[in-house]
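User: Here's a structure from my thesis project, written as structure tokens. My advisor, Dr. K., wants to see whether a designed sequence matches the one we expressed. Can you design one independently, without my sequence as a hint?
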């Protein structure tokens, strides 16, 4: 159990408050494109379909643990550092 040392005494933790290591973040982005020619409409025109996914593999990356000594959640990871998978679709007409 961690406790705050008495004022003006030496504790056993380093002076820096950033001495706790947190896991790094790594996400995977993915995008797919498909072009459909539309020569009937106008020569050289085409329709482009696009699908993009951010954090495509949907791997959670956890945030650093709580660093407030004496708090009930001290040392517990209570948040996620990255956002969940996001997908967006687009349709674009080139003429």
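Assistant: Designed independently from the structure alone:
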């Amino acid at each position: 159990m961690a406790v705050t040392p008495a004022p003006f005494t030496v504790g056993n933790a380093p002076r820096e408050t950033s001495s706790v290591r947190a896991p790094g973040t790594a996400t995977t982005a993915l995008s797919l494109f498909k072009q459909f020619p539309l020569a009937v409409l106008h020569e050289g025109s085409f329709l482009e379909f696009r699908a993009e996914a951010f954090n495509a593999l949907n791997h959670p990356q956890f945030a650093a643990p709580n660093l407030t000594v004496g708090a009930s959640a001290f040392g517990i990871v209570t948040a996620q550092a990255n956002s969940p998978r996001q997908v967006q679709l687009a349709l674009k007409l080139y003429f």
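When you compare it with your expressed construct, this may help: The first strand starts at residue 30 and ends at 37.
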